Amino acid sequence: MTARELDAAGITDPRLRAAYTVCRRLNARHGKTYFLATRLLPVDRRAAVHALYGFARRADDIVDDLGPGATTEQRSAALGRLEEQWRTALRGGRVREPVVLAAADTRARYAIPARHFSDFLASMRSDLTVRRYATYADLRAYMHGSAAVIGLQMVPVLGTAVPRAEAEPYAAALGRAFQLTNFLRDVGEDLDRGRVYLPADLLAAHGADADLLMWSRLTGARDARITAALKAAAALTRDVYREAEPGIARLAPVSVPCVRAAFVLYGDILGAIERDGYAVVHRRAVVGRRRRASVAARGLVGALAARTLPRRAVPLPVDAPAGGRSAPARSGTDLDRTAGGDPR
User: Fold this and answer.
1) pLDDT tens digits for range 73-88
2) 20: which residues sit within 8 A by CB, 6+ positions away?
3) Could you please report the per-residue DSSP string of 200-221?
4) In this predicted model, what pLDDT tens digit does every residue of 1-41 receive, in sequence order?
5) CB of 272 within 8 A of CB of 286?
6) What is the pTM of this model?
7) Which of the residues 69, 181, 211, 341 has the least number of beta carbons within 10 Å of its own beta carbon?
8) What CA–CA distance (Å, rounded) separates 152 from 273?
9) How many CA atoms are closer than 13 Å to the CA of 43, on its beta-carbon side?
10) 150 to each of 113, 155, 175, 331, how far by Cα in Å?
11) 46 within 8 A of 38, measured Cβ to Cβ
């Protein structure tokens, strides 16, 4: 976290500044697409976005990347400790975990409902034991906590040009679209963890199943039934993007370039998967650096234009919490250099 971003956000406590800096580093290292899009936000809003990402990333790492020899019981215990730290933070107690400290501060500043975090943690806990989803309805129920609530957490930070309740369903849909994209991109890596997020009914409709996916992963062989199922999953994901897209215009204008860039870059991952022949069982599809730079450049133009509109033309976040961030977002006059890296 740069001092400029922290100062703009009004974060002065040294412990908080250090905690937000940890979250920013996590975002820069692991969330390349997300981090790139965040650089298009006004400088005072970036710290909050990094905090929300850092908290989610820490929980996800416990579930997926605690270590090659970590048992389910050890992962469960580590997640339990994170959950207890979160409950302590909500009660106003002192916590040691930096991502919890920063996320709890962001939650309070923007009056983000606590249920969005408890729903997220519940989905992370289900990942410890649930490895298959019978139907898309089952998967969607999981994604409410693992993805939709991330979009809902973001809405107060981004601000809206309409009543917040009107923007929230679109934000939830965009969270699902991003996660469905990740599921497609990471099919092979998830198989290595023993997980299949593609619904069994979608696979079965094309003659495929989890065993066939695992066979393909282990042997390196391709199968037309798998390709057909992956194409269907990509089509479903594009439908969710279409569902979410009208919500972008409902956000505060200064936040639109950031979300539009993320929308385009994540959608480009689907295009990369298609161009690679739906080979995600065997390798990850990536968006080229030149394409990312092009999207970021267009986003920069939009971001600067939004920040130079007459003040009365830029709607402030509605439903601002009493005692929270009542001041309008500052209009930065410049944008930090954008970052490269593989989309995440």
Assistant:
1) 999 999 999 999 999 9
2) 1, 6, 9, 11, 47, 50, 51, 102, 105
3) HHHHHTTT--HHHHHHHHHH--
4) 478 999 999 999 999 999 999 999 998 988 777 788 888 89
5) yes
6) 0.85
7) 69
8) 28
9) 18
10) 11, 9, 6, 25
11) yes
